[in-house]
Design goal:
101 residues
């Protein structure tokens, strides 16, 4: 997606390794506290951006498998470049509202 590719560097700089301020100080902890241990399970991260949440989930909840997706090739490349999640599948996905039922 051209828009997200064009803002990837700025987005990556803003979100860093723990997300922007609201995610860093509030949302991440709320999400992690509500999830059980994920050993033996698979996780799909839709709209992963630079992959920061996938990395947090792997460290805290230890899923067996992860599929990390985004609309932007540039953001996916950034996610892989910043400490990639070992054995994760990275995939660009797109949604076209014209083809949904």
């Amino acid at each position: 997606m051209a828009y997200y590719d064009s803002i990837a560097d700025a987005w990556g700089a803003e979100t860093g390794d723990q997300g922007e301020a609201l995610k860093r100080f509030v949302v991440n902890r709320l999400v992690l506290d509500r999830l059980p241990d994920l050993r033996g399970r698979s996780v799909l991260d839709l709209g992963a951006g630079n992959g920061y949440l996938a990395r947090l989930l792997v460290r805290a909840k230890r899923p067996d498998r992860m599929v990390i997706t985004d609309l932007s090739d540039a953001l996916l490349r950034m996610a892989v470049a910043r400490r990639p999640v070992r054995s994760a599948l990275y995939a660009r996905v797109d949604y076209d509202a014209r083809t949904s039922g």
